[in-house]
């Protein structure tokens, strides 16, 4: 029997030919004036005082496991390079910024020298000004060109919200420059009548990698004048381009560079990142160019109080009688309610769309009991909303009309919301870089700020709130991406050939895997070689061969059955687990039940309802080894890395009571299986090792299963992944290894680099896994150590003590690592 742990949103894998010591970052104050009202009640409270109020009372105080105080820091000024246009400097000074921070001036100097540069400094350290000043100066120079269009610039953001926010900022800053700067957002929400004007006249176009991939590059003849004059490409929040998404974006940027060369331009890349390990290396892999890094943050920092918060145990019992903690969702809703009542402007970051909706609903209900108008000042913000809904929420947050917001990471990425006082983080966001990025949303006008990490009932979260040094004394992670992944590269070679026939000169641009893939694409009749070039052979659009976010195809539309109204969308890869028949779906504070899911037409029909429960999908998984790339001895056992094929099927769903998480029942589902070819790390143990660990046959499955769950939960501490990006299977006797085996695999076709990172940090990773299990206070296993919220086998069987003994014996034979964890 195999025990499985599937990543969320895993979708059918496509074979390549069918085409698919650095210090941690801290919140920084911007070098401009605050627009906070002095009468705002929150200005009278220090972050410590706000935390004291949240933790008042014996039961609340015990939930704070650690408090970290980061003192304020003075900034270091410099002067702008003398090559910056004086009109641009004057426009900046008119915004209240007399002098730049030293890192802003250095970045601008590199940009003017023609060096691609990455600014990797803390949140709110003024990264946007570092690249905007040289960009605006170039656009102003270009406006005076006697002939032609003049210089242009392209801005790429990972989200529409960030692009829209940046466009507002550019318009405000460039207003004194008149029509020399013509910024415009070009994305899926841009009306058709505006698009032609942008192509012809826009000289600072703000978009996202998705639109660049599907819209701009395939239509490059219509963008020829823009590309011919392209001087700068800004890549904002570039640390978010990791894993499969980052690998796709890396190839999109190579396609952009290729077309620019065709039109005679060679743009300089200006990248902005939260503090990251080796930012120049990551930026170089992303762009394919040498990149200079500017990482010495010279901006001032307001006081930050950062608290770790563990929800209490309840009297309820969960699966297999395990103790149940109060959910991070319920705890965060309480804290958001309290902060709103104090007049503290706050954002609660939540890991799922459903969680954001739930927290908003619960907070609104509790506020209505105290002050009904106050309930209208709390809302949810997440992906999947219609464009007009997103824009309205952004305006309300900017204006201060909203006091509290429960948001997914759609709001994390750089949306500048001045005046926030506190950030709640409902569950560790997967990486230290993301943790500091979210914490930095507060205090962005220079005032003190409060950040609270609320632990989920999860091995990693529990480990972190009791081991604060793992957060506050460790460097941020390296960015993991693999542009040479054949599942990523193949469709981009097709897209590139459709844009312009591929030549031998292009092979070096697309990387070392390109020469091997081109003959395969020919054999699959996707490309045809004529003379010295490869041509796209199909009538359909080559750019449609892949979804660069790895979401597995056309999004599923969520439609209200009675009215036909479109409520939103969900990624195709997540449809089996989130909008299956009987699933509970939340939208804008309203609850719906899914009546049917049509996978052929990509439509889920829903009806408004008020069930007293949420739903969680269950699945089964089988795994087979395709190829072993590396194998090293761990005592008598083996640690391996290679290619695997995973077959998964969602078979049922659980109904869990709201707030408590109590299981109310299980319902069977009939959904088709899906297969995935990916990369995995796996380890085996021998009979002698089992004897040494006192693992008898009757507990072997439970010991392996428990070790698998905990290791998946701990991997995000060592790789830039989320536990939902990875999956696992444990087998007492696997047919390919003929030994007891635990697999951990990437949840994306071709892999995302996470399993490879796990292989290279296996000693530290599995040692932390053993520590997390052994230090948990429960008797026989709970969600804080070995139970998983997405286990396809209902967390059965599990054996906590067996897992500790098994990992102890395994680690005795582990070789010394050559590479330290990220």
Could you give a quick summary of the protein structure above?
With 822 residues, the protein is an alpha/beta fold. It contains 27 helices and 31 strands.
Estimated helix fraction: 25-40%
What does the main sheet amount to? 7 strands, antiparallel
Rg (CA only): 26 Å
Mean pLDDT: 86
| Portion in strands | 15-25%
Q: Tally of extended strands?
A: 31
DSSP helix count? 27
Shape: globular
How far from one another are the termini? 34 Å
Structural class comes to: alpha/beta
Low-confidence stretches are 1-43
Organism: Streptomyces kebangsaanensis
GO molecular function: helicase activity
Protein name: DEAD/DEAH box helicase
InterPro entries: DEAD/DEAH_box_helicase_dom, Helicase_ATP-bd, Helicase_C-like, Helicase_put_actinobac, HRQ1_WHD, MZB, P-loop_NTPase
């Amino acid at each position: 029997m195999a025990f499985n742990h599937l990543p969320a949103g895993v979708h059918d894998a496509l074979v390549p030919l069918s085409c698919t010591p650095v210090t941690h970052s801290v919140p920084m104050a911007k070098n401009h004036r605050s627009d906070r009202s002095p009468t705002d009640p929150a200005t009278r409270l220090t972050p410590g005082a706000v935390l004291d109020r949240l933790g008042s009372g014996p039961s609340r105080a015990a939930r704070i496991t650690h408090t970290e105080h980061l003192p304020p820091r003075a900034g270091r000024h410099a002067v702008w390079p003398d090559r910056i246009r004086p009109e641009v400097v004057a426009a900046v000074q008119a915004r209240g910024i007399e002098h730049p921070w030293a890192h802003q001036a250095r970045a601008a100097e590199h940009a003017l020298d023609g060096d691609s540069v990455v600014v990797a400094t803390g949140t709110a350290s003024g990264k946007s000004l570092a690249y905007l000043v040289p960009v605006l100066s170039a656009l102003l120079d270009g406006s005076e060109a006697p002939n032609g269009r003049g210089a242009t610039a392209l801005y790429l953001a990972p989200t529409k919200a960030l692009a829209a926010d940046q466009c507002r900022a550019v318009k405000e800053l460039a207003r004194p420059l008149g029509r020399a700067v013509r910024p415009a957002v070009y994305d899926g929400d841009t009306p058709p009548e505006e698009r032609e004007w942008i192509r012809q006249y826009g000289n600072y176009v703000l978009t996202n990698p998705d639109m660049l991939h599907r819209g701009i590059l395939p239509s490059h003849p219509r963008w020829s004048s823009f590309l011919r004059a392209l001087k700068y490409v800004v890549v904002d929040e570039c640390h978010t381009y990791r894993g499969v998404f980052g690998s796709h974006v890396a190839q999109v940027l190579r396609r952009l560079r290729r077309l620019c060369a065709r039109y005679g331009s060679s743009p300089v890349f200006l990248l902005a990142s939260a503090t990251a390990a080796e930012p120049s290396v990551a930026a170089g892999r992303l762009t394919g160019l040498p990149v200079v890094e500017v990482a010495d943050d010279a901006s001032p920092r307001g006081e930050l109080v950062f608290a770790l918060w563990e929800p209490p145990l309840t009297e309820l019992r969960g699966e297999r009688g395990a103790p149940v903690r109060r959910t991070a969702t319920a705890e965060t809703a309480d804290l958001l309610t309290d902060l709103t009542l104090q007049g503290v402007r706050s954002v609660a970051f939540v890991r799922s769309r459903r969680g954001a909706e739930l927290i908003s609903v619960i907070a609104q209900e509790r506020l209505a009991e105290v002050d009904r108008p106050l309930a209208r000042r709390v809302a949810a913000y997440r992906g999947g909303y219609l464009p007009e809904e997103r824009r309205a929420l952004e305006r309300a947050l900017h204006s201060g009309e909203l006091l509290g917001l429960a948001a997914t990471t759609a709001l994390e990425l750089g949306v500048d919301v001045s005046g926030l006082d506190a950030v709640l983080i409902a569950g560790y966001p997967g990486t230290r870089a993301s943790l500091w990025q979210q914490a930095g949303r507060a205090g962005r006008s220079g005032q003190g700020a409060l950040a609270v990490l609320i632990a989920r009932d999860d091995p990693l979260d529990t480990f972190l709130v009791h081991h604060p040094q793992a957060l506050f004394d460790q460097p941020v992670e390296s960015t993991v991406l693999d542009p040479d992944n054949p599942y990523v590269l193949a469709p981009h070679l097709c897209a590139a050939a459709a844009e312009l026939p591929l030549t031998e000169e292009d092979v070096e641009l697309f990387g070392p895997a390109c020469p091997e893939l081109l003959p395969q694409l020919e054999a699959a009749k996707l490309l045809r070689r004529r003379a010295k070039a490869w041509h796209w052979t199909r009538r359909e659009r080559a750019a449609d061969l892949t979804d660069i976010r790895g979401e597995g195809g056309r999004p599923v539309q969520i439609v209200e059955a009675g009215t036909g109204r479109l409520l939103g969308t969900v990624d195709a890869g997540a449809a089996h687990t989130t909008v299956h028949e009987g699933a509970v779906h939340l939208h804008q504070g309203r609850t719906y039940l899914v009546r049917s899911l049509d996978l052929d037409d990509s439509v889920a029909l829903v009806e408004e309802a008020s069930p007293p429960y949420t739903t969680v999908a269950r699945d089964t998984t089988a795994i087979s080894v395709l190829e072993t790339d590396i194998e090293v001895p761990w005592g008598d056992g083996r640690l391996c890395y290679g290619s695997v094929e995973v077959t998964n099927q969602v078979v049922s769903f659980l109904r869990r009571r709201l707030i408590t998480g109590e299981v109310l029942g299980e319902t069977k589902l009939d959904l088709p299986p899906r297969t995935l070819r990916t990369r995995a790390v796996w380890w085996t143990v021998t009979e002698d090792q089992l004897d040494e660990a006192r693992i008898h046959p009757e507990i072997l499955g439970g010991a392996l299963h428990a070790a698998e769950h905990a290791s998946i939960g701990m991997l995000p501490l060592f790789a830039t992944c989320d536990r939902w990006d990875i999956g696992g299977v444990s087998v007492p006797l696997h047919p390919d290894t003929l030994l007891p085996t635990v697999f951990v695999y990437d949840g994306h076709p071709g892999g995302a680099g996470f399993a490879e990172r796990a292989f290279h940090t296996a000693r530290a990773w599995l040692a932390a896994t053993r520590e997390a299990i052994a230090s948990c206070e429960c008797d026989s296993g709970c969600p804080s150590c070995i139970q998983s919220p997405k286990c396809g086998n209902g967390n059965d069987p599990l054996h906590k003590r067996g897992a500790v003994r098994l990992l102890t014996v395994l680690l005795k034979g582990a070789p010394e690592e050559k590479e330290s964890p990220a």
